[in-house]
């Protein structure tokens, strides 16, 4: 893979940050081994670890592992649904989202709420590997593509 200068600079920046931190803790080779295996992490694992880091909850990793294992082993029938909105849900909308998700997945719902102002409005639902995107940002992108194709004969 050929990297641009900007990508090469980022790679070096990330690598030096890892090296500085791991040398300070006396674990450079251990961290190097861990890094090699990090590419095997699923996006969900990476997102969870990032969230835990941002919330200063890294000390809960062992407990999260234990609870995750317990849930997997118990064949839990509750479906985790992540809902992303531009503003926090109120109680009425939260109830409607849960009811709609219960109908869609024929199961009890564990709702994970995320606020992401960049979607501008609307809602994104994610569960069981499915994504239902009714965000304003996506709708505007669709309109843009449609207009671009209709009036200019292509994208952009």
Detail the poorly predicted runs. none
| Ends distance | 27 Å
Q: Indicate the proportion of strand residues.
A: 15-25%
What is the SS-derived class?
alpha+beta
Q: Based on CA inertia axes, which overall geometry fits?
A: flat
Overall pLDDT: 85
Q: Mind explaining what this structure looks like?
A:
This protein has helices at residues 5-24, 28-38, 43-54, 61-73, 91-105, 136-152, and strands at residues 79-85, 109-115, 122-127, 130-135. It is α+β, with helices and mostly antiparallel strands and 156 residues long. 56% of the residues lie in helices and 17% in strands. Among the domains are: 36-75, no CATH class; 77-141, no CATH class. Helix 1 packs across helix 2 (28-38). The protein has six helices and four strands; from the N terminus they run ααααβαβββα. A four-stranded mixed beta sheet has the order 2-1-3-4. A hairpin with a 2-residue loop joins strand 3 (122-127) and strand 4 (130-135). The longest helix is centred in the first third of the chain and has 20 residues, at 5-24.
